[in-house]
Specification:
Elements (H helix, E strand, L loop, with lengths): L15 E2 H13 L9 H12 L2 H9 L6 H8 L7 H28 L4 E7 L16 E5 L3 H9 L2 H12 L11 E6 L3
Antiparallel strand pairs: 1-4, 2-3, 2-4
Helix pairs in contact: 1-5, 1-7, 2-5, 3-5, 5-6, 6-7
């Protein structure tokens, strides 16, 4: 494929893959519990979110959070504190379940009115020697169909998200490869 960045950062360019920037922005739009899981309030909020209904318990189990009812009761009654590994599992399960719960609503908002305007901020070349820098400008485009992107994001499938985002940036024309790595991608829903 043209302009694929096989050895990104070799000359000092900095940035992240565009699909990772999209995933970060979708996570921001999904909102959720801001308090860290290591704080009592954040832990309790996540546990209540993951165990409030039978549906949420099944989703948490599907997300990889397995614990006995006795352990859960001890955590909720604050008789025991989860280990660091369990705190990470709780947080990861919360993020995955939250993504699945808001994906449909988010997709409807992103596809409304013919799509969503996306701002693409190019990679940071401040550390690249002047003769090796290339002219990469800020771009904006309208993404009309978010279905595959949101589906891959909600499933946590990084490869599918990367492939879906690559299909979108091809609409930039012959320069699409220059936007494989970016500093930020912004959009609202």
């Amino acid at each position: 494929m043209p302009e694929r960045n096989i050895d990104f950062g070799k000359f000092g360019a900095r940035g992240i893959k565009g699909s990772d920037a999209v995933a970060r922005r979708l996570d921001d739009l999904a909102d959720g519990i801001v308090t860290p899981v290591t704080v009592k309030r954040g832990l309790m909020a996540r546990l209540h979110y993951l165990t409030r209904t039978d549906h949420s318990r099944r989703a948490a189990r599907d997300a990889g959070l397995t614990m006995t009812d006795r352990t859960l009761k001890a955590w909720l009654d604050e008789k025991r504190r989860p280990s660091n590994a369990n705190l990470e599992r709780i947080d990861a399960a919360y993020r995955q379940v939250r993504r699945q719960n808001v994906a449909r609503h988010l997709l409807r908002r992103l596809n409304a009115n013919g799509g969503t305007r996306v701002e693409i901020h190019p990679l940071n070349q401040s550390q690249v020697p002047r003769p090796l820098q290339r002219m990469v400008e800020y771009r904006a485009m309208n993404v009309r169909r978010w279905d595959r992107i949101v589906e891959a994001w909600s499933a946590g499938d990084h490869q599918a998200l990367d492939d879906s985002w690559e299909d979108v940036i091809v609409d930039l024309g012959s320069q699409w490869g220059q936007y494989e790595y970016v500093t930020n991608i912004g959009f609202a829903a």
